[in-house]
Structure formats: C-alpha cells, structure tokens
C-alpha cells in the first residue's frame, strides 16, 4: 500500500492547490470574461431571462421566478447573492447601460441596498441586453454543460460591442482584482469602427475618440485639461 502513496513536498502541494483554487475563483466567480464583460452569475441571469422569454417587449415577471431558474438550472449558489447581482444590473445608477429592466423598488442612489425582496419586484431584460443575445442562436458561442450535465449554457454571450468597456466592472478574486470604469456607447462604437477600418490605429488616436469614462451618475469636468504650473 505504501508503494502506491505519492510523496510530494508540502510547499509544492499547497502552491498547486492554492493556484487551482484561485483560478477557479477568478474564472468562475469573481472576475468578468473579456468577451462579453460578464461574470458567470451575470451571464446566467441574462441567459435564464432570455430562456423565460423576458425580452424588452415582454410582460414583467416576478424576480423570484428568474432567481429560481438561475439557481436550479445554472448557478447552484445562494439566492440572496444571485438576486443582488440581478439588482445591480437593474440599477441605472450602478450600471451605465442596465441589462435588466426592473419594476418596483430596486434601491436608490443614496441607499443602493434598500431594494425590495425578490418576491415583490418584477423584471425583464432591457433593450441593451439585445447587444449580448441577438446572435446567440447563430453558432457564435461555445456551449458547455451546466453544473449537473442536464442542460447546456453558453460559455460566453456573443456581444456585438465590447460590453466590458461600456458597463465596466469591479471584482475581487484570490490574489487578483479588476476595476474597469464604464464608457460611452457612441464613443466606443466609433473606436471599434476605427480599429476595423484601420487596424494600425494607435492608442493616442483611439483616446481622441474615447476621451474618458462615462459614469451612470453623470459628472462635469470643470478644470482645464492643461493646467498652468
């Protein structure tokens, strides 16, 4: 029996175990995927709502129904964390371009956590979410099994514009973090067109188009870009 035992230095085992755990947290929990700018729970909420037929022109449906579908089919974690992620995507003061259109009490800028329970609020997808979903059935996304292997879910959503720049994101993982501010849709679209037309466009040229972040709560820059010494 001792011949079958594998000997491994403790520092090697702990290093590999910690790396595997941190990669799981980074890839599957905390940080967004650059392709669609969404964390796994956000992607699963959007996809589950699309499967429920909750597009921008549909009737509102209780948020508890969406959370139940997300947990039961794609994301077997806590319901409160899932609902809070959904709330953030519906708050126009948290997201520059909300993915969820909410009806009811979804919090306020001075108290974002004051939203009502999921059994009281109703929701559907916003018009903006079509940028992420409109090409999903055209073979543009890879599909993977869900947690119990009974369903398929998209590995990423085929975003028609770089949502990671448009809505930005924040996240803290194991040993890593991200904090990307949101940007203006029109400016980002113009920058994308410029890159397609001229692949050698420089960063300075792109910054002439996208001149800075565009936050959902709005702001005005009142100081000159050039300040006297």
UniProtKB/TrEMBL annotation:
<dbReference type="GO" id="GO:0005524">
    <property type="term" value="F:ATP binding"/>
</dbReference>
<keyword id="KW-0238">DNA-binding</keyword>
<dbReference type="InterPro" id="IPR013760">
    <property type="entry name" value="Topo_IIA-like_dom_sf"/>
</dbReference>
<dbReference type="GO" id="GO:0003677">
    <property type="term" value="F:DNA binding"/>
</dbReference>
<dbReference type="GO" id="GO:0009330">
    <property type="term" value="C:DNA topoisomerase type II (double strand cut, ATP-hydrolyzing) complex"/>
</dbReference>
<keyword id="KW-0413">Isomerase</keyword>
<dbReference type="InterPro" id="IPR002205">
    <property type="entry name" value="Topo_IIA_dom_A"/>
</dbReference>
<keyword id="KW-1003">Cell membrane</keyword>
<feature type="active site" description="O-(5'-phospho-DNA)-tyrosine intermediate">
    <location>
        <position position="120"/>
    </location>
</feature>
<dbReference type="GO" id="GO:0006265">
    <property type="term" value="P:DNA topological change"/>
</dbReference>
<protein>
    <submittedName>
        <fullName>Topoisomerase IV subunit A</fullName>
        <ecNumber>5.99.1.-</ecNumber>
    </submittedName>
</protein>
<dbReference type="Pfam" id="PF00521">
    <property type="entry name" value="DNA_topoisoIV"/>
</dbReference>
<feature type="domain" description="Topo IIA-type catalytic">
    <location>
        <begin position="31"/>
        <end position="229"/>
    </location>
</feature>
<keyword id="KW-0472">Membrane</keyword>
<dbReference type="GO" id="GO:0005737">
    <property type="term" value="C:cytoplasm"/>
</dbReference>
<dbReference type="InterPro" id="IPR050220">
    <property type="entry name" value="Type_II_DNA_Topoisomerases"/>
</dbReference>
<dbReference type="GO" id="GO:0003918">
    <property type="term" value="F:DNA topoisomerase type II (double strand cut, ATP-hydrolyzing) activity"/>
</dbReference>
<dbReference type="InterPro" id="IPR013758">
    <property type="entry name" value="Topo_IIA_A/C_ab"/>
</dbReference>
<dbReference type="GO" id="GO:0007059">
    <property type="term" value="P:chromosome segregation"/>
</dbReference>
<keyword id="KW-0799">Topoisomerase</keyword>
């Amino acid at each position: 029996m001792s011949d079958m035992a594998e000997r491994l230095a403790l520092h090697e085992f702990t290093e590999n175990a910690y790396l595997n755990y941190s990669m799981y947290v980074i890839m599957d929990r905390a940080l967004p995927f650059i392709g669609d700018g969404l964390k796994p729970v956000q992607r699963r909420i959007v996809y589950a709502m699309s499967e429920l037929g909750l597009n921008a022109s549909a009737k509102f449906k209780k948020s508890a129904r969406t959370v139940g579908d997300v947990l039961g089919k794609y994301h077997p974690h806590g319901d409160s964390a899932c609902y809070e992620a959904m709330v953030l995507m519906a708050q126009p003061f948290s997201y520059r371009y909300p993915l969820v259109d909410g009806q009811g009490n979804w919090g306020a800028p001075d108290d974002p956590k004051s939203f009502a329970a999921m059994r009281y609020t109703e929701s559907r997808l916003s018009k903006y979410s079509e940028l992420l979903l409109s090409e999903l059935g055209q073979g543009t996304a890879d599909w993977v099994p869900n947690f119990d292997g009974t369903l398929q879910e998209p590995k990423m959503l085929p975003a028609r514009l770089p949502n990671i720049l448009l809505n930005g994101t924040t996240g803290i993982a194991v040993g890593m973090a991200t904090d990307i501010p949101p940007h203006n849709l029109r400016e980002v679209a113009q920058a994308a067109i410029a890159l397609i037309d001229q692949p050698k466009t420089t960063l300075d040229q792109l910054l002439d188009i996208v001149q800075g972040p565009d936050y959902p709560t709005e702001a005005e820059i009142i100081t000159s870009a050039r300040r006297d010494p």
